[in-house]
Amino acid sequence: MNSFTEENYLKTIFHLSEKADGPVATNSISEVMGNKAASVTDMLRKLAEKGLINYVKYQGVSLTKKGRETAIAIIRKHRLWEVFLVEKLGFKWDEVHDIAEELEHIKAPELVDRLDTFLGHPTHDPHGDPIPNSHGEFQHNEWIILTKMNPGQTGILSGVSEHSTVFLQYLEQQGLLLGTRIKLEEIMAFDGSLKLLINQNQSLSISREAAKNLLMLHEN
Amino acid sequence: MNSFTEENYLKTIFHLSEKADGPVATNSISEVMGNKAASVTDMLRKLAEKGLINYVKYQGVSLTKKGRETAIAIIRKHRLWEVFLVEKLGFKWDEVHDIAEELEHIKAPELVDRLDTFLGHPTHDPHGDPIPNSHGEFQHNEWIILTKMNPGQTGILSGVSEHSTVFLQYLEQQGLLLGTRIKLEEIMAFDGSLKLLINQNQSLSISREAAKNLLMLHEN
DNA sequence: TTAAAAATTTAGGTTAGTCTAAATATTGTT
DNA sequence: AACAATATTTAGACTAACCTAAATTTTTAA
Ligand SMILES: [Mn+2]
Ligand SMILES: [Mn+2]
Ligand SMILES: [Mn+2]
Ligand SMILES: [Mn+2]
């Protein structure tokens, strides 16, 4: 059995592996986890010992099959609990991440699949992230970052890459919920800010900074 | 914030305080928790330091107001999660205790009350134990142990004082679910075993050992 | 191609929670 | 009241997960 701490390391390594390919650096783990690099090195040795990562000194790490499976199982739990908290308990989407950080470590093996059934086998969490099925398979999204769209194009807001409470609350305030139809009207030359048309009737201007975290699906 | 370990000590001290009155002995905590007495002593010093227990060396411990409140909050969570697991996820009553042992330590303050609302403010858990309300108040049961009833009397099975899977499965097999109407017909002189009439039509004999764990409410 | 900068690991320490063995206090029994 | 039995605490050690400071390796860039 893995400790909470080990599970958190695996999750972090998984997420970092998704972004850049090639091995994950000690320092990047250190930065995400808020631990010192020396502490990370200690843990990497332990995870390698347990067969969860491939680790070559000074060369960074990657997850083994077993490590990846473990990480995905945790992410599955995290996202299912987030759905539960929003759909069943009525939490807002900006309130659930930290609670799910705790719940994702509950070990009981039967629990996950029963929760999945209870929730009706959801495919995405409240932030638009895909929920892996019980075999660990992700349904991968064809997301385009809003800033990569061309003026004149329309898409559906389908995910966010920044999960902080302050950002999610900002989106809600602007009426930018998942499922919103957004037309990119213009990108301002001066500061890169974006002029949007929301649901065909409301216009809104947002910063490039905010737009970088909005993940869109083309309509079709 | 208290650690998982501290919370488990508080819960154990609470339960032991309920049984016998007067201070709780180091050895009894040691026995329940499966730790050595020396380890218990270390923890008692720490809990006293934090103002959660009254501790006089060699004289045993009792919970302070703060300690009792903390313990009750954990028990509330434990029992609410047990209800959730049985009512919503379809677990059997003998499967939920260990899972609730994990879930009871989830810290998120809003979660408990939302769960309580979602479940419809249940007053008892799947084993018949009362669930304290959000002010920490228990609705105390007027339970009588089955072995204390007189032959000829009838009551409703309303709780169990032994929560092990093997015992709960045995009860289920015998058709002894919570809510069952039981008439005590006769106590055998030879071995103290009890002859019962269940739901007015089915007769059943159970050992004194088993009967000691069955908590009854008189009909009225 | 080499020296400086950056990344990573090693060495040595700390704290929480556990242990065993030994010391001490309390309780029970003649 | 005194001694034996029992309960409890103290002393000293261990592991997991962290830390700082120093050493080492890799990378960058003159
Ligand atoms: Mn999350
Ligand atoms: Mn999410
Ligand atoms: Mn229980
Ligand atoms: Mn229970």
Short description:
Chain A has helices spanning 4-19, 26-33, 37-49, 65-88, 97-103, 109-118, 165-173, 208-211; strands at residues 53-55, 61-63, 144-145, 154-160, 181-187, 194-198, 202-206, 214-218. The first copy, chain A, has 220 residues and is an alpha+beta fold. One manganese (II) ion binds at residues 79, 82, 125, 127, 129, 163 of chain A.
Structural account:
The structure is a homodimer of 220-residue chains. Chain A folds into three domains: 4-63, Arc Repressor Mutant, subunit A (Orthogonal Bundle), CATH 1.10.10; 75-140, Arc Repressor Mutant, subunit A (Orthogonal Bundle), CATH 1.10.10.10; 143-218, Roll (SH3 type barrels). In chain A, β5 and β6 form a beta hairpin. In chain A, α1 (4-19) crosses α2 and α2 (26-33) crosses α3 (37-49). The first copy, chain A, has 220 residues and is an alpha+beta fold. The first copy, chain A, contains eight helices and eight strands. Chain A binds chain B through residues 85, 88-91, 95, 98-99, 102-103, 106-108, 110-111, 114-115, 118, and chain B through 85, 88-91, 95, 98-99, 102-103, 106-108, 110-111, 114-115, 118. The structure holds manganese (II) ion (4 copies). The site of one manganese (II) ion has 5 residues of chain A, from α4 and α5. The structure holds a DNA duplex (30 and 30 nucleotides).
Distance between the termini of chain A: 46 Å
Largest protein-protein interface: A-B, 18 and 18 residues
Q: What is the number of E strands of chain A? A: 8
The CATH homologous superfamily of the largest domain in chain A is named: Ferrous iron transport protein A (FeoA)
The major β-sheet of chain A equals: 6 strands, antiparallel
Bound molecules: manganese (II) ion
Query: Which fold name corresponds to the CATH topology of the largest domain in chain A?
Result: SH3 type barrels
Rg over C-alpha atoms of chain A, rounded to the nearest angstrom: 19 Å
Number of helices of chain A: 8
Total domain count of chain A: 3
Please identify the oligomeric state.
homodimer
Q: Tell me which CATH architecture of the largest domain in chain A applies here.
A: Roll
Which CATH class of the largest domain in chain A applies here? Answer: Mainly Beta
Largest sheet strand order of chain A: 3-8-4-5-6-7
Question: So what's the overall shape of chain A?
Answer: globular
Provide the low-confidence segments of chain A as ranges: none
How confident overall, as mean pLDDT of chain A?
Answer: 96
Proportion of helical residues of chain A = 40-55%
Question: Structural class of the helix and strand makeup of chain A?
Answer: alpha+beta
User: What percentage of the residues of chain A does DSSP assign to strands (E)?
Assistant: 15-25%
Task: List the helices and strands of chain A in order.
Answer: HHHEEHHHEEHEEEHE
